Amino acid sequence: MIQKIAKYTPYSKKRHMLFIFITIFSLVLPWITIEGKHLFLMSFDKKQFHLLFTSFDMQELYLIPFLLIIFFLGIFFITTVGGRVWCGWGCPQTIFRYVYRDFLQTKIFRLYKNIENKQQKIEGRWFSRIGAFLVFVLFAVAAASNLLWYFIPPEDFFVYIKDPQEHKLIFVILFIFTTLVLAASAFLKEKFCAYVCPYVRIQSAMFDEDTIQTIYNEKLGGEIYDKNHKKLRDKAEQNMGECIGCNACVKICPTHIDIRAGMQLECINCLECADACAKVMNRLNKPSLISWTSPNAIQENSKVKFVRFRTIAYSVVLAVAVCALLLMSTKKEHMLLDINRGSQLFSLSNNGSGIENAYTFLFQNTDSKEHKYYFEVLNNDIGITLPKEPFRLRPGEKSKKIVVLHTKVDSSLKEHEGSPQQIAIRAYAIDDKEHIFTQKEIMFFYPKTSDISR
Q: How far apart are CA 12 and CA 271, in angstroms?
């Protein structure tokens, strides 16, 4: 009795569901806010960085290195485990190509007979071709706008575009991004993946024999190409393999390769060929000759080995980086203070009985609420001449204050004569001194005795 081969959900359906999820997620993410703070935002306009509903000023960008480390470690980890799975399952370029070629050109405008043959060339039908391109232009504008929302919050973006004369730069950037999407998806097509994208140039260095790839199983299908990728035959020889030479895997490949020749630079792990082969072989009640597995799993006829030194090492380092990011994100400063000295080191007051030093204090309220601020000198012999009164700052507001500190000419002058004294400044929000404060150390300069005697 012949055993029936079990049916499975095609990889293409899983990919398309993931495409929909990624698209919805990328569109919704910029809109997720709590009390005006975004889940993720790098606002060049307001010079803020938002992460996990906490806003950080540009002077607090110590989190960016952690994000970059996590980003690159994530790429290394994903590539080591799944090869170019990102290219076929999550890359925006792949999604754009699917929308343009498979959805608009094939399903809507019928420029291709079906999506199972991507090797066809379109001839004539210019009206439909222009129509598909114009519709895709709208999609490209939406995609470019979506990208901008991660740098200009959408609530500001839609206000800015109502005034083109005042915000010309936004329209220039939007035009550039839209042009890049159109050029990559409608003109460069899959050549972008093979020749432009830098990821393809480094990913092979991260592969090993346990990395998951789209692999044609020569043990089942038979040898079609030799080790130098030279084609030997159209189908497997009799009793030497199951490949019937239908070329379904070749016709459906979006990057125009023959997976039977082995791993190639252009392969993006989309697994369209695996689906095409499975459909044909299922009719013959035989397993697919193309699968998503690793070279070692094929050779040893075993399961893919996910747990190995590389994956464990990347997982540990990635976990440490994520924990460090979460820890550092809790170190939010609710106020910032920069201190600069004036051009004059010191001055004398009250007929030479007092010594004054002038500074410029730049205060910034990085909290989400308005506060009243002031400061104190943590040295008993130094007093504050200016400013006399506390001052208010709205959320995100900055204020530059001229600060004059003074001390008396007494016995302490002998100790610090002609040299600076290090003093500590503690600035704080009057309504929350325990949590909103910062402390800085500055130098207070003293004159020489001869300067006072004059």
A: 7
Cα(106)–Cα(254) distance, integer angstroms:
13
Most confident of 180-184, 319-323, 382-386: 180-184
Report DSSP state, residue 7. Answer: P
- Same domain? 3 vs 138: yes
Kindly calculate the radius of gyration of the chain based on its CA atoms and give it in whole angstroms.
33
- CA dist 104 and 380 (Å) reads 76
Tokens 């020569």, residue located: 218
Say yes or no to pLDDT of 278 above 80.
yes
> Which of 109-113, 402-406, 417-421 has the highest mean predicted lDDT (pLDDT)?
402-406
Of 10-14, 150-154, 203-207, 267-271, which gets the smallest average pLDDT?
A: 203-207
Q: Which domain holds residue 181?
A: 1-31+83-301
**Which residues 6+ apart lie within 8 Å of 327 measured at CB?**
none
94 & 224 share domain: yes
DSSP string, 115-168: TT-------S-HHHHHHHHHHHHHHHHHHHHHHHTTTS-HHHHHHHTT-TTT-H
Q: Is 297 in the same domain as 428?
A: no
Instruction: Give the Cα separation of 50 and 38 in Å (integer).
Output: 6
276, 118 Cβ separation under 8 angstroms = no
Of 8-12, 57-61, 349-353, 396-400, the one with minimum mean pLDDT is 57-61
